[in-house]
Amino acid sequence: MSPKWMVDNVVVRNEAAGHLYKFACGRWLGRGVDDGSCERLLVGEQLPSHIDIEDLVASCRNPPSRSQSPASPRKTAEPRLSIPAVQEMMGDAVNNIVKYYYKPEKERGTLTVLLCGEKGLVSSLELVFLCGYKSARMFRQHFFIWDFLERVNASFSSQLKEQFGDAHVSSRKTALHSFCNLVNRINRASRQLGKDGKFQLLVCVGARDHMLHQWLPLIAESPVTDSMYEESSFFHDAGLVTFLVQILQSLTEFHIILEPSLVKGIGS
Predict the structure, then answer these.
(1) Is residue 125 a contact partner of residue 90, using CB atoms and an 8 Å limit?
(2) Which string of DSSP letters, residue by residue, matches 124-142?
(3) pTM of the model
């Protein structure tokens, strides 16, 4: 039986500089619990100097509540944010990345925070995918975006067995192939990654390879999407899909370099 840890926060102190950092998690680690992840990427924040480390550590020692039992799946109910609010989050997330590249290199900070941090690109796209899925009727347990994407991957793989002719269809085939190839590589990349970690990796590598804006229209028109999403979703509204394509297309002008620890050895 593999161990299962509920990780609320990780506290790190830089003894040389005297700085204190807190990495929020609030998730389980272990096989057969939560999304099955044995590792997670945590984005930290530097805490004010007046906070005492002993008090902070003591506040993190409370045992998990019954709702955080490993036997209970993590709850991801339908997001409370409206579609316009999610659109605004997407706009802010992409705009922050654009502004990052227009800053002098010494002033940029860390791109990983803008991708994987709170209200970053990954969490904003997660809200897009969570909006309008048929949770009550379609899923017996917990909905993970990666489960949906693997079904899409299977559908795309079937399409790739067909023969393509003209240039338009050829570019479609290239996008289908890149999606399937990346999903399969992510599944092979690390046995320690859970389903949410795999989704995070797909978004980051998709942004790096300038493919996100090409994948989303294909996902939207997939029969898998039609069966698993309500009409009140991003994927069933042509205007919202166009919005996503246009805003993500603005990232294609930048040479995005991801930290090695983030890509799990998945090269371009």
Answers:
(1) yes
(2) HHHHHHHTTB-HHHH-SS-
(3) 0.80
